[in-house]
Amino acid sequence: xxxxxxxxxxxxxxxxxxxxxxxxxxxxxxxxxxxxxxxxxxxxxxxxxxxxxxxxxxxxxxxxxxxxxxxxxxxxxxxxxxxxxxxxxxxxxxxxxxxxxxxxxxxxxxxxxxxxxxxxxxxxxxxxxxxxxxxxxxxxxxxxxxxxxxxxxxxxxxxxxxxxxxxxxxxxxxxxxxxxxxxxxxxxxxxxxxxxxxxxxxxxxxxxxxxxxxxxxxxxxxxxxxxxxxxxxxxxxxxxxxxxxxxxxxxxxxxxxxxxxxxxxxxxxxxxxxxxxxxxxxxxxxxxxxxxxxxxxxxxxxxxxxxxxxxxxxxxxxxxxxxxxxxxxxxxx
Length: 333
Hints:
The protein has helices at 15-36, 39-45, 51-71, 110-124, 149-158, 171-181, 204-215, 259-268, 283-290, 310-326; strands at 2-3, 75-78, 81-88, 90-96, 129-135, 139-146, 189-195, 218-223, 230-231, 233-235, 241-244, 254-255, 270-275, 296-303, 306-308. By secondary structure, it is of the alpha/beta class. Strands 6-5-4-7-8-13 form a 6-stranded mixed beta sheet, with helices on both faces. Strands 1-2-15 form a 3-stranded antiparallel beta sheet, with no helix packed on it.
């Protein structure tokens, strides 16, 4: 069960003081009666009066009102299922989250601009499946291929350069992990690497070539950063910038875009290379080219609609009110 307006459930708390007031009033009434006469005399004087019936009336009326307030939250259950056929592209995004991605030669910085552009792509895509791999000195899978754009957006929003302690740019391992995300069969499959390509490890060019030849996966790259380079802001544990990153000699570290490496990776993977700029990040260009591939067919089961429970609950409330009106005024004499 779920609720269309879950915040309306707070109205149910209004009945707590009502119940407390009823209990207090009943207790005070009994105390006053006990002071008026002894128990035997009160039974004769109040013959026909029934505290039990009075309690039941309150329970039935308050129960009906509780049901009405509960209905205000819009209780509902899921309806039937349907199988949706989707024809789209399987895309794994390999995103560099090394410290150099904090450089601000792209505003607000390389990583935040990447997150913004990826989120835009996810929001406008329809039938495509996305997976996410992040890497610095090592690579970590963050999201398997999925049609759940909400989950993908949540992962992207949470990315930070502090997620991987080991620094570097291990594009080769990112490619290897992305390889596991793709099944053995499939037509339209692509890996998009978003990185500055600096301080790389291993042989990412050979890994991209192997992925393209053995898995039929297109490997494209987006270069973030500038050839002239930029300093790397140093961040403390509270997320506050405390200056620029320094090397062991006390000199400011300059991070530069390694376009040659990223171009070689894209060429070996049969894909495209685009340099991100302030006006065009390049992700849209690469995505547009991938839409020309023969699409992969996937089947997705989803719930078609919700069925409201309000009519049935209101009938229950009406039954409680009718029952209250049918109760006798008191015990038969």
